[in-house]
Amino acid sequence: MVSWALWLLSAALVIGVVMGLRFAGGGRLPSRAIGAVHGLLGVSGLAVLIFAFVNGVAANDKYGAASFGPASAALAVLAVLAGAGIAVLGRSSTRGVGLLIAIHASLAVTAYVLLLAYDLLALT
After folding, report:
1. Rounded to an integer, what distance in angstroms lies between the CA atom of residue 112 and that of residue 32?
2. What pTM value is reported for the model?
3. CB–CB of 79/111 below 8 Å?
4. What radius of gyration do the chain's Cα atoms show?
5. Are 12 and 42 in contact (CB under 8 A)?
6. Measured between alpha carbons, how far is 72 from 76 in angstroms, rounded to an integer?
7. Long-range contacts for 52-60 (Cβ within 8 Å, ≥24 apart)?
8. Are 58 and 74 in contact (CB under 8 A)?
9. Where are the domains of the chain?
């Protein structure tokens, strides 16, 4: 189940990187449809991840990585909140959105790396 969440979040990550590079290059936010797909993939991945932990995924206690999964879920929740802020602030102007994009990206990438480590260490 954690692997499904990882696949969904991987797709969201790829779309997010493309959107971030386009924003950095031209300063324009992407279309709402692309942002909506990115958000839906991210929220879906987070929902699957939370569902997996609520239903008792065995803790990966190898190498001290047992807290990586729940920590990644907590950071992903914060990233979703920041992403919602981007959607709200981006409607009026792109002036103050850059900092929020940086916060969103930092939280999301940290959550993704922790989840990736959690999942890969479970395979060993």
Report:
1. 23
2. 0.86
3. yes
4. 15
5. yes
6. 6
7. 52/1, 52/2, 52/5, 55/1, 57/1, 57/2, 60/118, 60/121, 60/122
8. no
9. 2-123
Helical ranges in 1-124 per DSSP H: 2-26, 32-54, 68-92, 97-123
Q: Which amino acid is at 119?
A: D
Residue 43 has pLDDT above 70, yes or no: yes
Distances in Å between the alpha carbon of 58 and those of 9, 19, 66, 72, 83? 20, 35, 9, 16, 30
User: Which structure tokens are listed for 22?
Assistant: 């386009």
Tens-digit pLDDT profile for residues 53-104: 888 766 656 676 778 888 999 999 999 999 999 888 877 776 778 889 899 9
Phi and psi dihedrals of 67, rounded to 5? -90, -5
Tokens representing residue 95 in the block: 């002036």
> Which of the 8 DSSP states describes residue 63?
G
- Both tokens of 107, joined, read 């939280």
